[in-house]
Design a protein that fits this description.
Immunoglobulin-like, about 5% helix, 5-stranded antiparallel beta sheet, mainly beta
């Protein structure tokens, strides 16, 4: 995983880009009193190997006028490139959906307006599938929802060794 960061001053973060072009409605659209933003996404170590468990903590700020009581984090990991020759050949035959893994986590953390909430999770990465190493480069999209409204979408670059 790349240890540098564009959006947050923390040396344990991968490259991060904020975007709102994911086809999701956002909390800043004016249609709701719910809004917020990701403050940081912190990892337990600067790099990972395929098969490792990734421990991550997401902090977000409630910038709206009502409490956020239900959070959902959607994580989409898209395999851009695999290190092995066999893996690269296999990727050529796969659709975007087959190259993407999606995980959803729900939380019930009460975060009042102006406050910062913390959501933590652990994810075990796969070492290999059908004998093919999953070491390679991934684009990870993190979507944070609060009270059913998309608050922010952030893209990260992840490297599994």
């Amino acid at each position: 995983m790349s240890p540098h960061d564009e959006g947050v001053d923390n040396s344990k973060n991968p490259t991060q880009k904020t975007t709102s072009d994911m086809g999701e409605s956002t909390g800043s659209s004016g249609s709701s009193d719910v809004s917020g933003r990701i403050v940081s996404i912190d990892f337990d170590k600067p790099g990972y190997n395929a098969g490792d468990t990734i421990n991550v903590e997401l902090k977000f700020k409630n910038t709206g006028v009502v409490p956020i009581t239900q959070e959902e984090v959607i994580i989409r990991a898209y395999c851009e490139r695999l290190d092995s020759t066999l893996g690269r050949l296999a990727l050529r035959t796969m659709t975007e959906d087959q190259r993407t893994s999606t995980t959803r986590r729900t939380y019930s953390v009460n975060v009042n307006p102006g406050e910062i909430g913390t959501l933590a999770a652990s994810f075990r990465t796969e070492r290999e599938i059908e004998g093919v190493s999953l070491a390679g480069d991934y684009e990870v999209t993190v979507i944070l929802k609060g009270n059913g409204i998309t608050l922010e979408v952030r893209k990260l670059e992840l490297r599994l060794n």
